[in-house]
Write a structure and sequence with these properties.
3-stranded antiparallel β-sheet; 124 residues; 10% strand; mainly alpha; Recoverin, domain 1; 2 domains; two-stranded antiparallel ribbon
């Protein structure tokens, strides 16, 4: 016999009633309403701080396929250039998700264009 945190009974894998099915959710998935306000306040403080840094422009996060499409570079080149500190650093979005700030990628592109056109002028 398996008992969940809320005491619902599972014997032979059969649920007793509809209410028992809803009571068997593990406690870790229950929303924590006490800390929800604190998390929102913390998030808003971070947004306000980034807003001040970015001059009020909206933040947009680009995922790897978008960065590849925007820059014309492949995945491995982006990661290698990032490791060599020649490309903007990614930010962690979750346990297995990363992204790049659109403004940083655009600034990097403008810098590359300026460097490329500056070196072309010297050759001619």
């Amino acid at each position: 016999m398996i008992k969940t945190a809320r005491g619902a009974d599972f014997s032979n894998g059969i649920l007793g009633s509809e209410t028992a099915r809803h009571q068997c959710l593990p406690l870790r998935y229950a929303p924590n309403r006490a800390s929800n306000g604190v998390a929102k306040d913390h998030l808003m403080a971070g947004v306000m701080q980034m807003s001040a840094i970015c001059g009020g422009e909206s933040l947009r996060i680009l995922r790897l396929p978008q960065v590849c499409g925007l820059t014309g570079l492949g995945r491995s080149v982006i990661y290698q250039m990032e490791a060599d500190l020649r490309f903007p650093q990614r930010i962690k979005l979750g346990t297995r998700a990363v992204g790049w700030l659109e403004q940083e990628v655009h600034a990097w592109l403008l810098k590359r264009i300026a460097a490329s056109r500056g070196s072309d002028d010297r050759k001619t």
